[in-house]
Structures are given as C-alpha cells and as structure tokens.
Design a protein that fits this description.
The chain is mainly alpha-helical and about 325 residues long. The chain folds into 2 domains: about 220 residues, 3-Layer(aba) Sandwich (Rossmann fold), CATH 3.40.50; about 80 residues, Tyrosyl-Transfer RNA Synthetase. It contains 13 helices and 5 strands. The strands form 2 sheets. A 3-stranded parallel sheet has the order 1-2-3. The protein has a two-stranded parallel sheet with strand order 4-5. Helix 4 packs parallel to helix 13 and helix 7 packs across helix 8. The two termini are about 40 Å apart. The relative contact order is 0.14. The mean pLDDT is about 95. The structure holds tryptophan. Tryptophan binds next to strand 1 and helix 7.
Length: about 325
C-alpha cells in the first residue's frame, strides 16, 4: 500500500478571501483534498485571529466566509478533515505543554514579534508597547496546531517558514525530554504562490490594499479587473506579457493553450481593454458556479456550522487519545 502523506494548514479568520488566496492556497489545497495519496487537514485558525483582530463580529464573519468559501469550491470533507481550531480543546492544552519546553529566547527571534519591537524603537515607544502575550506566543500555538495531528507537510507562505522551523525545534525539545511523540513537520512553500499580482502590480495582499475579493458579484468583478494597472501602450503595439500584471493573473487561471494564445495576442498588439475583458471572462467562468453555492451557504450558516462540527468530531477522535498519551508522558496522571 502506498504511504499517505499527512498535510495540514490553517487559515487565520480575519479577512475576506481574495483572488490571491484562491490561486495561492485554496485551489491547490482543494486539489490535494481529492488526492488519495494525501491525508489532508484544513482548519480555521480562529484563536490565531484573536492575536490580530479584536473585533468579534469580524472574526465571526470571516470564519463563516472562509468556511463557506472552501465548501463552495468543492473541498471534499468526506476525505479531508475540515474543522475550526477552537472546537478542538486539545489544541490549547497542547499549547501549554509545548510552552513549558519552549525557550523564551526562541520566541524572541520570531520575525513578527521583532518587527513590532523594532517599530516601537523607531517611534520612541517602550519596547513592549502594544505587544500582547498572544503575539509573543503565536508560534507555540501554531506548533500545537501542527504537532497535534503529527502533520508531515505544511503548505504555507514564505512569511511562515520561520514558524515551521520553530515548530520543529519545539517538537525536538519535547521528544528529547519526554520520548518520541512528534513527527517533525516540514514547510512546503510554493514559490508561485507569492506572485499573483494585485491591482497595482505588487503582490496581491491585504496589507497593500490591492486585492480583488474572490466573491465580488459579476459586475464588480469586471470593474475591479478593469482597474488592474497597465502601461500606456496603444492598441496595435506589441506588448510584453512578462512585465504585465494582467498577464500574470491571466496565466494563473489559464490552461497552457490559453496562455500560448494570449502571448501571441500580446505580440500582435492586443489592446489592454481586450486583455482585461478576456481575463474577466476566464475568471468569471471559473467562479460563477461556486459563487452561487457560496451565496447559498452564507445564507445558511447552520449548514456550515454542521460541517465544522462534524469535522471537529473526526479531528477529536485523533486529538483526544493523543493528548491522553502526552499528559501521561509529562506526568499528568491518575493517582490510583
Ligand atoms: N499563521 C498562519 C498564517 O498566518 C496560519 C496558521 C495558524 C497555520 N496555524 C497554522 C498555518 C498551522 C499552518 C499550520 O498564515
């Protein structure tokens, strides 16, 4: 029997999914969920959301939107595990066990924490200004997410690679002290992921305010695509696809044959407006069906809730016995 790989990733529930998330993370993850050689775990990282967002309604709304997005796009929940982090009480429990073997010095080196400290230095604030223990301990919670299910591969963006190194480090310390309980996870970074450009040509990212939301209604989607930045070349002038944001976005959605045709059209001097129209049709064609399913789910949150509860039940069938083993290992035991 071929060995199945256990793949796990979390999505922080603070925002609305955009095209960059779709191309870079959601689409490949859903494809993986249909691959019999992969055992996939996808979860909504709502505890992580609290580190970045203190707006309760936003956390709730984002959780619903992200869950509905994954379901609408065809995540196979019979094959993969899809759950909400906060439905698994064994995760915060494991977080504490890991916190107790994590060196504070290791956390001091975390990029997000260091960036906050540097920012304080720049603005003349106290080094700790605005820094919560949630931000400081964020990597331990993330390690618990991963180690709880002994995931081997963790698809993440480049900015998360350090957190994976920390998870390995923490797992090794725990294993060293209490015996071999954890597999060492590896980050899986897809370089293509970082490169879907936004409307201004830079990487599509919430922090640049250049995103195109995934579930815009058709007219607004078209409008947003029409706003993607181009140069001032006229219709008829040959254009370079490789320096055009519209082409990068097009190629993320197109088949190899469509890509070839579009490159030829660039060489033949296609007008920017026409490229954008074709881009709109391509994206809209792919999203129109899922968009209807998405709307239906958003209007029926109970259905989404049920899916998540079922996912949590299946996840806890794994996490409950494992946390019992770990409690035993550290000496938290029945006395009789
Ligand atoms: N920190 C990740 C991010 O911001 C989200 C996340 C939380 C995660 N827990 C995880 C990713 C576990 C992978 C594995 O993108």
């Amino acid at each position: 029997m071929a060995e199945t790989k256990r793949v796990l990733t979390g999505i922080t529930t603070t925002g609305t999914p955009h095209l960059g998330n779709y191309v870079g993370a959601i689409k490949p993850a859903i494809a993986a969920s249909r691959d019999p050689g992969i055992d996939s775990f996808y979860f909504l990282a709502d505890y992580h959301a609290l580190v970045k967002c203190e707006d309760p309604e936003r956390v709730r709304r984002s959780t619903l939107e992200i869950a509905a997005t994954w379901l609408a796009l065809g995540l196979d929940t019979s094959r993969s595990l899809f759950y909400r982090q906060s439905d698994i009480p064994e995760i915060p429990e494991l977080t504490w066990l890991l916190t107790c073997v994590t060196a504070k010095g290791l956390m001091n080196r975390a990029h997000a924490y260091k960036a906050a400290v540097d920012e304080n230095a720049k603005t003349g604030e106290d080094a700790d200004y605005g820094i919560t223990m949630g931000l400081f301990c964020y990597p331990v919670l993330m390690a618990a997410d991963i180690l709880m299910f002994n995931a081997q591969r963790v698809p993440v963006g480049k900015d998360q690679v350090q957190h994976l190194e920390m998870a390995r480090d923490i797992a090794q310390r725990f294993n060293h002290r209490y015996g071999e309980h954890f597999a060492l996870p590896e980050a899986e970074v897809d370089d293509f992921v970082a490169t879907l450009p936004g409307t201004d040509g830079r990487k599509m990212s919430k922090s640049y305010d250049n995103t195109i939301p995934l579930w815009l209604p058709e007219k607004k989607l078209r409008k947003a695509i029409m706003k993607i930045k181009t140069n001032s070349q006229e219709p008829g002038e040959p254009k370079d696809p490789d320096s055009a944001a519209v082409y990068s976005v097009y190629s993320a959605f197109a088949s190899p044959a469509q890509r070839e045709q579009m490159r030829q059209a660039f060489a033949d001097g296609i007008a920017w407006g026409e490229v954008k129209q074709q881009l709109f049709e391509l994206i809209n064609g792919e999203l129109a069906g899922p968009r209807e399913r998405y709307e239906a789910l958003i209007n029926n949150p109970d259905k989404v809730e049920k899916e998540l509860e079922q996912g949590a039940e299946r996840a806890r069938a794994l996490s409950r016995p494992f946390i019992a083993e770990l409690r035993e290992a550290v000496g938290i035991r029945r006395l009789g």
